[in-house]
């Protein structure tokens, strides 16, 4: 039995909560803390978990304590529960999903020796399709990382990385959903330009994105025989055909360069915000 404390029952806190309960975690093993009693009442009603307006109640005896508040208040929240974490009999693993909050900063406000884990999730977690990358601090052992990975895997995929890679991860998966939204939006506009009604163009573009993503995900799941994005594209590009004509136009307009530059800009901004 793993006791889980969640501080901050907002978007990410609720997404985690719903994934955990849906995948079989006993709601009585989860305590959620939030400032709003109304919000807590709702979460209690939806998921049957224990709730409190005191962050310290979520921290008490938690094996995994997940801080899901906004980045500007994340360290203050850890500081406010530090004594409770210190008094816990189990070595509480302190987890933060706050963008830009480093492992070193977390360690500086928690009791010495606390295993800390920093997670970079993304918004598809809200529909159980998240991608989370997690990195551990000085006291975080492999078993701690695997436990936290298993928690985040309940709402999508979760991988263990080094903290030095978190800014690059932000550029790929953290901000990644927005790139796909933008590409889809551009396809809708182009469809309208070709004469399709907007509603129809949107249905076609979104459904195509969903299908393409499902094929790529199936490839990822089948390590031995699965097709990656390169194979999948090759298979739909017949010699001299329509898809090849479209690909040529995209390449001539610098699609790859645009992504290299965009993701470098994202990584640079992530480094800047972390300072
Ligand atoms: N949403 C995303 O796509 C995404 C992606 C990657 C990372 N993240 C990270 O996830 C974290 C949470 O984001 P979110 O979108 O879930 O935010 P959110 O919806 O605002 O949820 C945060 C919740 O925590 C509550 N809270 C604030 N201070 C508290 C305290 N001292 N004790 C207990 N509860 C407190 C807030 O209450 P109030 O509303 O009263 O302040 C709110 O209900 C952020 O650090 C963000 O960087 C989010």
Written overview of the protein:
The structure is a single chain. It contains twelve helices and eight strands. The model has no long low-confidence stretch (mean pLDDT 96). Helices cover 55% and strands 13% of the residues. Helix 7 packs across helix 12 (255-274) and helix 8 (176-193) crosses helix 9. An eight-stranded mixed β-sheet has the order 3-2-1-4-5-6-7-8, sandwiched between helices. It is elongated and about 70 Å long. The chain folds into two domains: 4-161, NAD(P)-binding Rossmann-like Domain (Rossmann fold, 3-Layer(aba) Sandwich), CATH 3.40.50; 174-274, ProC C-terminal domain-like (ProC C-terminal domain-like fold), CATH 1.10.3730.10. The longest helix has 24 residues, at 198-221. With 275 residues, the chain is α/β, with parallel strands linked by helices. The site of NADP nicotinamide-adenine-dinucleotide phosphate (NAP) has 26 residues, from helix 1 and helix 4. NADP nicotinamide-adenine-dinucleotide phosphate is lined by residues 7-13, 33-36, 39, 55, 68-71, 73-74, 77, 97-99, 121-123.
**CATH architecture designation of the largest domain:** 3-Layer(aba) Sandwich
User: Which ligands appear in the coordinates?
Assistant: NADP nicotinamide-adenine-dinucleotide phosphate
* C-alpha-based Rg, rounded: 21 Å
| Main sheet: strands, sense, barrel | 8 strands, mixed
Total beta strand runs: 8
Give the helix level as a range of percent: 55-70%
Global outline: elongated
Domains (count):
2
Find the CATH topology of the largest domain.
Answer: Rossmann fold
Order of SSEs? EHEHEHEHEHEEHEHHHHHH
**CATH homologous superfamily classification of the largest domain:** NAD(P)-binding Rossmann-like Domain
CATH level 1 name of the largest domain: Alpha Beta
Low-confidence stretches: none
Give the strand order of the largest sheet, numbering strands 1, 2, ... along the chain. Answer: 3-2-1-4-5-6-7-8
Number of DSSP helices? Answer: 12
Measured between the Cα atoms of the first and last residue, the distance is: 38 Å
Q: Which percent range describes the beta-strand content?
A: 5-15%
Based on secondary structure, the structural category is alpha/beta
Q: What number is the mean pLDDT? A: 96
